[in-house]
Amino acid sequence: MPKPPVTITLTGAGGQIGYAAMFRIAAGDMLGADQPVALRLLEIPQGMRGAEGAAMELADCAFPLLAGVEITDDPNVGFDGASVAMLIGSRPRTAGMERGDLLAANGAIFGPQGRAIGAHAADDVRVIVVGNPANTNALIAQQHAPDLPPERFTALTRLDHNRAVGLLAAEAGVAVADVGGVTIWGNHSATQYPDLSHATVSGRPALDAVDPAWARGAYVDRVAKRGAEIIEVRGGSSVASAANAAIEHVRDWALGTPDGAWTSAAVVSRGEYGVPAGLVSSFPVVSRGGDWEIVEGLSVDEFSRRRIDASVAELVAERDAVRELGLIE
Ligand SMILES: NC(=O)c1ccc[n+]([C@@H]2O[C@H](COP(=O)([O-])OP(=O)(O)OC[C@H]3O[C@@H](n4cnc5c(N)ncnc54)[C@H](O)[C@@H]3O)[C@@H](O)[C@H]2O)c1
Ligand SMILES: O=C(O)C[C@H](O)C(=O)O
């Protein structure tokens, strides 16, 4: 008997990351080769044609797992019965825009979307925010869905995690499969802290395999600013790698992380590692039984503490700014 389809809502489905993600989702890369999916493409009126064109191409792929595609510009329709909500569409920063303006513009998107998720999505919906500023957008959405458990809301730092793994493997001259124990802490921004304190390369401590000064200097900067580096070289922000990371985040959340391995995700803090409760911050996580669990008990030395605190301070400032704007309580 085939499984019933799972409803997956993608916002910003007429944009680039939505386009890069939806074909892989429909092909079974996210929820598995035996799991039919029904896609809901949520856009704003200006993005509807892009979403319609993408839906035509989905039909032309004749994916056996694709149980249906609906396109809408109404969040109440878009999130109805959704088990996975991938919030990709957001208001990008434009020239001359202040940080407060950006947060306000995104509050106007993620507040109503959070409310619609709370009212219409499945009780066990998994929400992943990709649209920047991702952590604080996730916080805004979560605060507008008070009847859902906070842990249903997350933000994407898997892209940073994958970048950190890839760059470490390249430096150490090993395959990515030989790297483990990397953590991204904090915000998806230039303050994030890619931490190699507990990382391993072919089973040895990473800090024995690469120059520790590089690991805590140029490496941290390179990972944290990789998004800007991509924009400079490509002439546009990361698309396929962001879509891939979002797919891996949902896949691991729903199906579990491999035994003995952790990854990174921005989840709602309950005060772990001194991160104020309620912030959506990146942590080392495993997924067990369909839920993210923060890996606890890792030692944090003085250098790591300072870096984590700096990124968390930025999250606190963003939270306080959206509070002042009346976007959250
Ligand atoms: N967290 C990460 O790792 C990461 C990585 C890369 C990009 N991003 C962010 O992802 C976002 C999307 O990037 P992109 O390249 O796909 O951008 P894009 O401009 O190509 O597409 C964005 C789409 O969102 C739509 N949109 C805007 N407001 C919406 C709303 N209220 N509801 C539904 N749709 C809406 C737009 O019409 C557009 O089609 C950006 O904010 C980008 O900064 C995050
Ligand atoms: O869109 C951006 O500003 C960059 C993006 O968040 C990235 O990390 O690639």
Automatic annotation (TrEMBL):
Keyword terms, alphabetized: NAD, Oxidoreductase, Tricarboxylic acid cycle
Q: What class of enzyme is it?
A: oxidoreductase
Task: Supply the InterPro entries for this chain.
Answer: L-lactate/malate_DH, Lactate/malate_DH_C, Lactate/malate_DH_N, Lactate_DH/Glyco_Ohase_4_C, Malate_DH_AS, Malate_DH_type2, NAD(P)-bd_dom_sf
Coiled-coil zones: none
Q: Which GO terms describe its biological process?
A: malate metabolic process; tricarboxylic acid cycle
Classify the source by domain of life.
Answer: Bacteria
* Gene Ontology terms, MF aspect: L-malate dehydrogenase (NAD+) activity
Positions contributing to NAD(+) binding: G12, A13, G14, G15, Q16, I17, G18, N106, Q113, V130, G131, N132
Which PROSITE patterns would you find in this protein's record?
Answer: MDH (PS00068)
Residues where substrate binds = R93, R99, N132, R163
Q: Where is the Lactate/malate dehydrogenase N-terminal domain?
A: 8-147
Q: Is NAD given among the entry's keywords?
A: yes
| Ranges of residues in domain Lactate/malate dehydrogenase C-terminal | 157-321
Identify the catalytic residues.
Answer: H188
In its keyword annotation, does this UniProt entry include NAD? Answer: yes
The EC number of this protein is: 1.1.1.37
Enumerate the NCBIfam families for this protein. Answer: MalateDH-SF1 (TIGR01759), PRK05442.1 (NF003916)
Q: Into which family does the record put it?
A: Belongs to the LDH/MDH superfamily. MDH type 2 family.
Q: Report the protein's function.
A: Catalyzes the reversible oxidation of malate to oxaloacetate.
Q: What is the name attached to this protein's record?
A: Malate dehydrogenase
Q: Give the organism, scientific name.
A: Leucobacter triazinivorans
Q: Which gene encodes it?
A: mdh
